[in-house]
Amino acid sequence: MGTGSKKVLIVDDEVKIVEFTEVYLINSGYEVYKAYTGKEALAIFQTQRIDLVLLDLMLPDISGEQICNEIRKTSKVPIIMLTAKSGDENIIHGLDIGADDYMTKPFSPRQMVARVNALLRRVKVETPPDQREGIIAFHKDNLIINHSDYTVKKSGENVSLTPSEFKILYTLANRPNKVFTRDELIHIAFEDDYLGYDRTIDSHIKNLRAKIEDNSKECRYILTVRGIGYKFGGE
Fold first, then answer.
1. pTM here?
2. Are residues 113 and 185 in the same domain?
3. What is the largest CA-CA distance in the chain?
4. If residue 80 lies in a helix (H) or strand (E), which one and from where to where?
5. H or E element, residue 131
6. Domain span at residue 142?
7. Fewest CB within a 10 Å sphere: which of 104, 122, 133, 167?
């Protein structure tokens, strides 16, 4: 395996799921790390440069939610949550705590690899030359979005966003006052091969508002256009 292989951490206490997931990822060129408990997962994450995490929400010692929260304190690494609960509220909750995508068990290993591939492509996606060094500032530099290094600052303070949150924010902010439907945001921010739940956008919007708005109930940046979608209202 080449030294440039992406590193994927699988966190799940079900041995069979870990084993078949590992096989498919290795066959797709990934380097795989395995953890069957939350403590093992955090120990690996703290000592290895992990590129993506497949995270089960039901673990025997530390919950997947707690692990996700710990990772998000220091890293924007893409996280795909694995859950046996397919209800909308469970999915939305997982996205709210910082996951980028989700898969419900049982899942197709081929679809799992496709999700991993798509999410990693979204993280490193190239932009046109005229946007690569783009810095977008709003409201007298209160909010600064820097596409060159994927950073966001609000009132001079760094704002920690997941890769998916950044893509949505940049897509909206790059065309202020243009109304985007959920489908358009999925297509533009996540590429055509996104296979997820369309209400994922709503969860990411909710998270973004909590991070960049002074008052998430009276938004001035990310505005809802009822019955259609969202637009960016910065000046």
1. 0.60
2. no
3. 54
4. strand 79-83
5. helix 129-132
6. 129-232
7. 133
Q: Token pair for residue 94? A: 């997982």
Report the alpha-carbon distance of residue 203 to residue 195 in Å, rounded.
16
Dump pLDDT digits (tens) for 31-57.
999 999 999 999 999 888 899 999 998
HSE-up of 190 (CA within 13 Å, CB side)?
24
Number of structural domains the chain divides into = 2
| 120 and 148 both lie in a single domain | no
Nearest 5°: phi and psi at 71?
-65, -45
What CATH code is carried by the domain that includes residue 193?
Answer: 1.10.10.10
Classified as helix, coil or strand, 230 is strand
C-beta separation of 229 from 175 below 8 A: no
Q: Are residues 89 and 140 in the same domain?
A: no
pLDDT digits (tens, 9 = 90+) for 181-215: 888 887 776 665 555 556 678 888 988 999 999 88
